[in-house]
Amino acid sequence: MNIIEVKNYDEMSLKAAEYIINRVKNNLNLNLGLATGGTPKGVYNKLIEDHQQNHTSYKQVKTFNLDEYIGLSKEDSNSYHHYMNENLFQHLNILNENTHIPSGLNDDNEAECRKYESLIIEAGGIDLQILGIGANGHIGFNEPGTSFHSKTHVVDLAQSTRKANARFFHSLDEVPTQAITMGIQTIYQSKEILLLASGKSKQDAMVKLLSGEITEEFPASILNNHPKALIIADEEALFRVKEISIF
Ligand code: GLP
């Protein structure tokens, strides 16, 4: 696992966008894994800017998002479908049929999970997966205790995750209690992984991630074993790591 330290959120967003653009230019058929949350918003803005100025093309790129809330329709302003359309897809020349996000509204969630896992495999796997990280080490919505061998599955969200995400809803009660997420194995099988972290709320997570201990109690820790994982984190996120000299 490699790590690049940057000054702040803006620099993290720029570095990550450059990294992604480079991969898109070198592989027109890139399978790109995407994340939601506050962290990647700046990256998506930079990808849009680049697309408008330099015309980087996403015409043959396929995207696979990590997760979606169960119970929210695609049109719901808190769904990850809506987030991705607003913050990225509608501003690029990507084809709608090439963007994939698990459906949070269907009759059979287990079947939806199996279908999603097959879609990724049929596409040839994910070339580059973008990740944020939860304060408790969750990646996608894989909460502490999730098996490292898990594939796309239904999860009960940790109360701490619901509280952290309540800022996007009117109240905590509105935050769904379940989600569909790629499993840890699904994520780990990506050829390359780019994890982004910015700000004070990620300081403890960075300490645990970079301590090197690999445990299912801290899902992101599996990335220590990944042959091509890169972290781009800002000074604030790495502040405690440096204080205790593990980086
Ligand atoms: C959410 C998402 C994750 C995301 C994480 C951190 O629950 N499911 O994919 O990485 O929380 O979010 P943020 O970037 O807003 O801190």
Quaternary class: single chain
Bound molecules: 2-amino-2-deoxy-6-O-phosphono-alpha-D-glucopyranose
Strand content is 15-25%
Q: Kindly name the structural category.
A: alpha/beta
How would the global form be characterised? globular
Instruction: Give me the CATH fold name.
Output: Rossmann fold
Tally the structural domains.
1
Q: What is the helix fraction of residues, given as a range?
A: 25-40%
Overall radius of gyration: 17 Å
Largest sheet: 7 strands, parallel
The separation of the N and C termini measures 12 Å
Which CATH C-level class is it? Alpha Beta
- What is the correct CATH architecture? 3-Layer(aba) Sandwich
Give structural notes.
The strands form two sheets. The protein has a seven-stranded parallel beta sheet with strand order 1-10-9-6-2-3-5, covered by helices on one side. Strands 4-8-7 form a three-stranded antiparallel beta sheet, with helices on one face. With 247 residues, the chain is of the alpha/beta class. It is globular and about 45 Å long. α7 (203-210) links the parallel β9 (192-197) and β10. 32% of the residues lie in helices and 17% in strands. The chain has a single domain, classed as Rossmann fold (3-Layer(aba) Sandwich), CATH 3.40.50. The protein has eight helices and ten strands. Bound molecules: 2-amino-2-deoxy-6-O-phosphono-alpha-D-glucopyranose. 2-amino-2-deoxy-6-O-phosphono-alpha-D-glucopyranose is lined by residues 35-39, 66-67, 132-134, 140-141, 161, 165.
